[in-house]
Amino acid sequence: MLSERVRAAIRDVEAFVAGRDDANPLPAPAARFVHALVAATRARRCLEIGTSYGYSTLWIAAALPEGGELVTIDREQRKHDYVRGRLADAGLEPGVRFAVGLAREVIPTLAGPFDFVLNDADKEHCRFYFDTLTPRLSPGACFVTDNVLTHPGPLGDFLHYLRGRPDCFSLPVPLGNGLELTVKLA
Q1: What are the Cα distances from residue 157, in Å, to 50, 103, 182?
Q2: What is the pLDDT of residues 119-175, one digit of tens each?
Q3: pTM to 2 decimals?
Q4: Which of 3, 58, 95, 155: CA 20 to 30 A from 10?
């Protein structure tokens, strides 16, 4: 159950991004699904590729167990500054580590393992992100890709690749803009 502090921070972000043209947060049903997935799998170490204004960041951080960690990547410091404030409002800031830069440059520097990844950044680099992170994913880790319904062209080859891997199980989840849930098999 989300605390009132977390709910208030989520509402603040929803209101803030509503009129912005530089924000594309997960739709609320997809964000709730991500929260439930992190909580149900008891993911202790999570990675978010594409922080933006922190809507999904709040949902993921709120699902972490005590002592869990979320690493979130965005190329814009100003967005991270905004998110820090909302996380502080929600009482969730201690469990979140920020990485500023291009995801394709930051991801190779990150040590694993990760139990959960939300992939919600530039679509043309999704396969690079997945391939770079696969050795750093714990067995049973979830790799969730957003926008599979709204960006079928740019993501088509990547989804075909995921669904054909013998070391993973991957399926679409028709929530929000469409999610692809990929589980790394043991």
Answers
A1: 21, 20, 15
A2: 999 999 999 999 999 999 999 999 999 999 999 899 999 999 999 999 999 999 999
A3: 0.96
A4: 155
Q: Which long-range contacts (CB under 8 A, 24 or more apart) does 65-69 make?
A: 67/95, 68/43, 68/44, 68/95, 69/44, 69/45, 69/95, 69/96, 69/97
Q: With contact defined as beta carbons under 8 Å apart, do 150 and 120 qualify?
A: no
Q: Number of folded domains in the chain?
A: 1
Round to whole Å and give the CA distance between 150 and 61: 26
- The structure tokens listed for 150 are 């709204």
DSSP E strand boundaries for the chain: 45-49, 69-74, 96-100, 114-119, 137-146, 168-173, 179-184
Enclosing domain of residue 55: 4-184
CATH number at residue 168: 3.40.50.150
Coil, strand or helix at 40: helix
Closest alpha carbon to 27 in 175, 167, 186, 162:
175
Confidence of residue 179 (pLDDT cuts 50, 70, 90): very high
Dihedral angle, C-alpha 107, 115, 162, 103, nearest 10 °: -20
